[in-house]
Design goal:
about 65% helix, 4 helices, mainly alpha, about 100 residues, two-stranded antiparallel ribbon, about 10% strand
């Protein structure tokens, strides 16, 4: 189950950063909060991170929860550091990989 979350997070992260010819994920703005556009990709990553938090074991769950709060704050524009939301998603991906290696 966690492998599915990992693969989907990697796919969404890559399609959000790199435009692949022939494969386009519709990434339109759904709404705006605090002047920041919330896209379909942001909502999908939001749902996947919540799913991952529910599946991860205890120490990784708390770390992913803190990273999730930081990710939400950076997407909404309260933490204005360029590229922070992508780095946080990469951190969550690395945490999922480490939790899989722990098993």
């Amino acid at each position: 189950m966690i492998e599915v979350v990992l693969v989907l997070l990697v796919i969404f992260l890559i399609t959000g950063l790199i435009e692949i010819p022939g494969f386009t994920l519709p990434n339109f703005v759904l709404f705006r909060i605090n002047g920041e556009p919330i896209t379909l990709l942001n909502v999908l990553i939001f749902m996947l991170i919540l799913w991952a938090i529910g599946i991860l074991p205890s120490p990784f769950r708390e770390i992913a929860g803190v990273l999730f709060v930081l990710w939400v704050l950076s997407v909404l524009g309260f933490i204005a550091i360029a590229g922070l939301s992508n780095l946080i998603v990469i951190g969550i991906i690395v945490g999922i990989v480490f939790s899989m290696l722990k098993k």
